Amino acid sequence: MTPIPRRTVLQAATVAGAAAHSSWLLGGASAHAAHPAGATAGPKTADGPVRITWLEDGGLGEAPGNTFGVPWPKGGVKAGTEFSLTTEDGAAVPVQTWTTAYWPDGTVKWTAHAVGPEAGAAASYRLTPGAAPAAPAKAVTVGRKGGSVEVDTGVITVRIGKDGKSLVKSVRRGGAEIAKDGRLVLLRQGEIDDGDQGTQKWERFDGDIEKVTVEQDGPVRAVVRIDGRHRRGKRGWLPFGIRLYFHAGAESFRMLHTITYDGDEHKDFVRGLGVRFTVPLRDEHHDRHIRLGGEGRGMLSEAVRGITGLRRDPGAEVRAKQVKGEKLPDPATWDQRVTSRLHLIPTWGDYTLGQLSADGFTVRKRTKPGHGWIPAGGGRRASGFGYVGGVSGGLSFGLRDFWRRHPTQLDVRGAAGDEAEVTLWLWSPEAQPMDLRFYHDGMGQDTHAEQLEGLNITYEDYEPGFGTPYGIARTSELMFWANAATPDAETLARQAEAVQTPPQLVAPPEHLTATQVFGGLFAPVDRSTPAKAKLEDHLDFLFTYYRDQVEQRRWYGFWDYGDIMHTYDPDRHQWRYDVGGYAWDNSELSPDLWLWYAYLRSGRADIFRFAEAMTRHTGEVDVYHIGEWAGLGTRHGVQHYADSAKQQRISTAVYRRPYYFLTADERCGDLMHALVDSDKTFLALDPLRKIRTEPYEPDPRALAIGLGTDWSGLAAAWLTEWERRGPKAEEAEKKLKATMRTIARMPNGFCTGEGLYDIETGEFAEAERKVSMSHLSAMFGQVEICAELIHITDVEGFEEAWLQYCRLYGATREEQQAELGGYATNLILQQGHSRLTAYAAARLKDERDRYATRAWREFFTKDRWGYSESSPWKTERITGPMALVEGSGASWVDTNTTALYGLAAIQNLALIGDRVPE
C-alpha cells in the first residue's frame, strides 16, 4: 500500500546462524522436548553467518536506527549465544540482540537485533553467531533523576516526565535546548452540526501521564513507554500508550502513539488529536527557517523574515545563504538600503499544512494571530514532514502515512517569538469531527427473526448495541530530529524519506524457509517449470490488483487505511462499500496471512509494506482492546466495528505473528499478549448465540468452544505467549497442550466441531461421537497454527487428529461415513481446503502421491468459490461516467477467493510442488 521511494528490492541466498540473550520483557517458562520433524523436510541451516539486507535500497538514511528479526532452526542455537554484525567487507557494526521466541527444547527460535546510525548505508551485512558484538562509539544510556527519566544517545539528551502533562520535558543537543514540553493534545466536541450553522464549542484535553516504564536501556537501543489518558478537570478519557525509541549515536528519536476510544460515540466527537512540542528560538528572524514537506521530495523553504525578492537587494551571497539555511553575514555588511529597513519586512510566525483528503493539501501562513492567512501553495500528497528552527538549532518532525491517514495537519505557531509551537495533528481540527456513530437506526431489526432477514439481504449480522466503537484503537508513527543547525535541502529530503518509509533490515526468503518457522508452509518463489511459473504469474496478478485498487478506490483514512474491501459490485463498477457484510474485509478468510506468506517467500518490499499496513489496521481497529468484548474482533461490514459478530477469528494472534517476529514491534507484541486470557470472552459473549437450537448458558467449567475458528485463535495466543516466555507462559503452555490432548481424545477429533472447555484445567470434556465440519473452521489460521504445533510438540494423538480432518474434509461421503460414523454436508471452498489435503500428502509419506494428486485436483477444479486457469486473469478498463474515478476493475475477483487461492497456491507449492501437474 506504500509506494517505495527506494525501489530496489534486495534479495540474497543465505545460510544460517545463532542467537542471543533475552530481555526482561519475555518473562520465563520451562522448555520441553520438541517433535523431531517439521511439516516438510527442509534442510537445517549451517553454523555460518546470515546475510542481512535492506528491504529497500538506500541504507539507514536519516532514520535513528532499525530493529529486525531473524529466525533460527530448531535445536541449532543455544540460549545466550552472542551475535556480531559486520558489513560484507568486515567492518564491525554495533548491534543489540535479544530473544523474542524459543523452541520448546530451550533453543532460540527468533531473535531481534537493533542497529543505530553506525549501520550506515552498506548494501548488506553478515550476522554471525558466537562472536561478541561491537560496542557503539556512543552508547545510549538511561538514567532516572527525580521526577524524570533521562535518555542520552551520545548526541542528544531527552528528559521524559514521570507524571503531569509534559511527556518529553526537554530535548537537548550539546548546550542547546532544541525542544521542550512535548505533550498530547485532544480536542473534543459534544455534538455534530448537521445544519447550515456551526454552534458547537470545543474542549481541550491534555495527555496526563499515569505510568512510565523503561523497557530497554541500551547499549544500542532504549525504549521508554508512557501510559496515561487525556484529561480535562476531573474527566479522563481516550487512554494512550506512547513508546519512545532511542538509538546510540542518533540525533533523532521515534514515537509510537496509540489511542483507544472509550467515549460515547453519540457525544464524544474527536475534533483534533495531536502531538505538540515547544521549540526555543534564539536566532535573528532572518536566520530562522520553516520547512514543510510537499509532494515527493518537494519542500516549502522559507525564512521567518525573508530577504529575497525585495525591491532592494541585500546581495547575492546573502540571499543564497538564506535559501540554504546558513547563517547570514552581519547586516552591517549588506546593502544598507535593506539593512536600514529590516524592521519593515513582515515576519511570518504561523504556518499550516492541511491534508484533509488523500488527494489534496494546502499551505497557508500569517504574520501572527488576529491577522489574515495568506495562501502559500499546495499539491496532492504531502510527505508529512516539517522543520522549524534557526542556524543555532531546530526541530525536524514527521508523521508517517500522512496523506494515507487523512485528515492530518502540521502547524507551526509563534515562530516570530522566543518560542515556536509545533503540532502534528493525527486528526486535523480543520476537518469534520471524528464521527464513530453507527451508520443506520436498526431499521426495525429488534428480533432475531428480523435480524436474520437483514442478514439474508445485506449480509450484515445486525444486533442492537453491538455496532459500538468503544474499545477500538489506532497506532501512529512519528519521528523527531534535534538538529544542530538548519539542515541542508538534501538532508531534509532524506529525513522526510525516513518518515515516509522507515528503513527495514530483513533476512532473505531462503533463510526464512530453511528454518521451518510458521510451520514450514512456504518456499521461495520458483519459476522452474511452466506450471509453477503460471501460478506465480497468477499470484503476482492478484497482489498487484489489490495494491492498485487501494489507490484507485482511495482506501485511505485514519481508521480505514490498511484494510481492503470484501466483494465487488459489477453493476456499479464499485466495491460494495455500503452493503452490509460485503464492505470492509476485516481479515475475512485470512488475507493477512496471504500477504505475509507472499512476502516470506519473495522478500518483496511492496508486499511487506502492504502487509505491514494491514497488520497495523486489523490488529487495532478491527479488535476491541477494552470493555466487555476486549480480545474479540468484529466480522466484516460497512464500518470496521459495525457487525454484531464479535469473534476470535478476527483478533487471532496468528495474523500478527509474522510482523512481530520480523520487526520485534512492541505494540504488536502487546496485542498478542492481551489475547492470552481471551478464553474468558466466551463467558461474556457466545459467538453462536444466534444459531443455537438448544438453551445454552456459558459455564466456566463447560464453555462451548468451536474447534475451528475459536480454538485456533486461542491456540495462537497461547503458543505465542509460551514461545515468547511471557508472564503467563506456563499457564499458556498448560492450556495449549491440554486442549490439544483432549481434542485428540475425542472420538472424531477435530471433526467433532465443538467441545465443552474448562477454563480452569484447559481441557475439553469427553465428547460424544458426532460429525460437524464447517467450511470456515480451518480458514482463519487453523491450518497454519496446527502446522506449527505439530512441528514443535509431540502431544499424543494431536497430529493424527489434525491429519484426519485434513484427509476427510475433501473426501467422499462414503469415506467420511466409514471413518466417522457420519458425514458433513455443504463442505465448500475446496480450492482453499486443498492445502489441507496437500499437508496430508506431505506428512503421510506412504500415501503422498494419492493425496498430492487429490490436492492439485481440488485446487484446479473450477467451482463457485475458486479461480481456475480459465478465469480471465486480467482487469477491464473502467471509464467515466460509469465510475467515480477512471481505472480498472475485475468483477470476477473477490477477497475471500483471493485470500484462499493465494494461501493454497503458496502452501501447495511448498508442500507438494514437485507434483504440480503440467
From TrEMBL:
Listed PANTHER family: CONCANAVALIN A-LIKE LECTIN/GLUCANASE (PTHR40081), TAT PATHWAY SIGNAL SEQUENCE DOMAIN PROTEIN (PTHR40081:SF1)
Segments forming domain PcRGLX/YetA-like N-terminal RIFT barrel: 50-129
Keywords: Signal
Tagged with keyword Glycosyltransferase: no
Annotated signal sequence range: 1-33
Pfam families: PcRGLX_1st, PcRGLX_2nd, PcRGLX_3rd
Designated name of the protein: Tat pathway signal sequence domain protein
Lineage: Bacteria, Bacillati, Actinomycetota, Actinomycetes, Kitasatosporales
InterPro entries on file: PcRGLX/YetA-like, PcRGLX/YetA_2nd, PcRGLX/YetA_3rd, PcRGLX_1st, TAT_signal
Organism this protein belongs to: Streptomyces taklimakanensis
Residue ranges of domain PcRGLX/YetA-like central beta-sandwich in the record: 140-496
Chain ranges of the PcRGLX/YetA-like C-terminal alpha/alpha toroid domain: 502-916
